[in-house]
Amino acid sequence: MILDTLGVGLLGTSTEVYHKVKQYSKIYSSDISSTIWGHLDFRLPPLYAAFVNGVAVHSMDFDDTWHPATHPSGAVLPAVIALSEAFPQKKKISGLDLLLAFNVGIEVQGRLLRFSNEARNIPKRFHPPTVVGTMGSAAACAKLLALDQAKCKNALAIAASYAGAPLANAATQTKPLHIGNAAKHGLEAACLASQDLQGNKQILDMESGMGAFYTDYSPQSLPTLQSYAWLLDQQDVAIKRFPAHLGTHWVADAASSARRKLVESSDHVLPLDKIEKVIVKVPEVKYVNRPNPNSEHEARHSFQFVACSALLDGSMSVQSFASENIHRPALRELLCKTQLEHPTDNKPSFESLYCEVTVVLQDGNTISDRCDTFYGHWRKPLEKEDLEKKFQSNASEVLPPEATEGIIETVYNLEKVKDCSILSMFLSGQSARALSEKLRLL
Prior knowledge:
The chain has 442 residues and is an alpha+beta fold. It has helices at residues 2-12, 16-25, 46-58, 77-84, 95-113, 132-144, 149-160, 175-194, 247-264, 296-299, 303-313, 323-326, 329-336, 384-395, 401-412, 421-428, 435-438; strands at residues 34-35, 43-44, 275-281, 338-341, 355-361, 366-371. The longest helix has 20 residues, at 175-194. It starts with a helix and ends with a helix. The model is unreliable at 438-442 (pLDDT under 50).
């Protein structure tokens, strides 16, 4: 076996596909490197920068969510930013280039998801970003590389062979790798396609292509460019206020409202010892049904944990998932009193689900509240001020204030920025003291 494997491997070094992969792989031994967000003194080759930064985006389940269900941005943005740094200095990538590539990556995800009714529900078998996110990353990077139509088709074909990861790894440290791999694999697929590596150009139309992931996948022709409408203009994303599965955000708002009613009738103190049980009505989503979470990742995927935390504290935050809060006795006591119910009209779709939280007291009285649309959902989007506060709160944990402000200013002016490397400079933590000089606006 050893001798045979060595022999066929040596023979394989003469094949066309080997030479294409070898040529592509020179990126690993080159001097090309990309920014690792939050680090001044640590850079990696673009592929691994996309991976590491992609993992960071999803490491707390704090990234945006779309409908049909996926996390669209985390698979695309780390890839295109990393790739933009790989271009030679004389070929600067503008903010508009970056913005267009990013939007292409989002659009491809949305179009693929809309070819399946199954995709409209909260997933059961695999994590959607590992499929459509990989395809979106490939499309975005192909756009940034200005690949022709044939190579773009090959990029998507290659990406499809990287796609997929089982949902069984939800609520573990492995789930964030899904986003990192989607970013990395999409970038890799586009780079391989740029070397003319070929795949099945009909991959998007075949039952054994994208149809392998969605059983009711039914691709359709898209409108002409003259009448084309971008999906982001029709369907906004949800922006999370705290780092947990999107379904728990309905729970948090309903539980927080129920708590306000409880304390108003109990001298403004939560009557924990008088609570007999807590009933949480949500859709049946098995991987978010965790009655006894023991880690931050399990807590982020637990209807019960978020209901009890919001009842105890009145709101949810990053600190809600700290170990001392997960294991505090009061929360454990309340978890034991909490049960889920799944009304037949409560479908597992981010477009239509609701949550109703009912607190049953020992004297027979009940306090209830219901959330149909939480603040941050696309029907009730975050105000610009709250979005900025979230960013500043998150970024200030790793970046100096000037870099944080530099990112905000750059993003808001991205269409005018001549060289988007300024964004990577700020992401690394470089000072933005000379912001007006560094921002190269048209």
